[in-house]
Amino acid sequence: MEPILSALQQRLQHQFLNPQLLTLAVTHRSFSADHNERLEFLGDSVLNLAVAHLLYERLSGLPEGDLSRVRANLVKQDTLHGLALKLDLAQALRLGEGEMRSGGQKRPSILADALEAVLGAVYLDAGYPVAQALVRRLFEPVEINATMQAAAKDPKTELQEWLQARKMRVPAYRVVGTMGAAHQQTFDVECEIAEMALCQRGIGGSRRAGEQAAAAAMLENLRSKTP
Question: Cα–Cα distance between 218 and 200 in angstroms, integer?
């Protein structure tokens, strides 16, 4: 394994049984057709579950809606970007030449997505308890308290709370298309509320941004239908 990835394993405090998983986790789609987006998808779920469990323990007095809002603050791009910087994840990224020239190594969306991919890789390599322990180490220096509930809601959180208040399931998001060169892609994302047979689309410079745009479009649609 490359020295850079060996050093990253030390910072993660996890030695991979299958080092190829870590290599894949730091590979951006601009570098290879075999890239980290599937691991990112998996890591997103691992992260949300681990953070939800952490909040359930630490903020025992908060109701469900406020817990969801605090979690949204902890798993948003800005927070994950900061954690990725502390891990020095940027130096391990495998990017295409165009993405590298355009500053992709410092791009918050790429670093946040890569961190989720690393969590997905750890989960596949060693199971959920090990991945959960990594999440807890990453968030150990992050101040977590009930006042975070006052933070502004992003569209995805607001939509989720709107649905939960009506005893409905959370929406489903999927990438329906990508456009542009590998180092300047935009993501076309669909947001679906199956119980209402509603779909809305949004476009963003990352999968995460596309999901937020789709959620915002869905909220606008719901408000137009709701007196």
Answer: 6
204's CB contacts (< 8 A; 6+ apart) are 186, 187, 189, 210, 211, 212, 213
Q: Choose among 29, 22, 32: nearest CA to 1.
A: 22
> Which positions are catalytic?
44, 116
Picking from 18, 167, 174, 20, the residue whose alpha carbon sits closest to that of residue 94 is 20
Rounded to whole angstroms, how far apart are CA atoms 132 and 119?
9
Per-residue pLDDT tens for 42-90? 999 999 999 999 999 999 888 888 888 888 888 988 899 999 999 999 9
- Which run of H or E residues covers position 227? none
Matching residue, tokens 């691992």 = 46
Q: What's the CA dihedral at 83, 108, 48, 164 to 10 degrees?
A: 140
pTM, rounded to two decimals: 0.73
Return the CATH architecture of domain 153-227.
2-Layer Sandwich (3.30)
- Residues forming beta bridges with residue 187, ordered by sequence position: 178, 204
DSSP secondary-structure letter at 39?
H
Type of residue at 154: D
Architecture field, domain 1-151? Orthogonal Bundle (1.10)
Residue 189: φ, ψ to 5°: -115, 140
Q: In the chain, what are the domain boundaries?
A: 1-151, 153-227
User: Could you tell me how far CA 224 lies from the centroid of its own chain?
Assistant: 29
pLDDT in tens, 160-194: 888 988 889 889 999 999 888 766 778 999 999 99
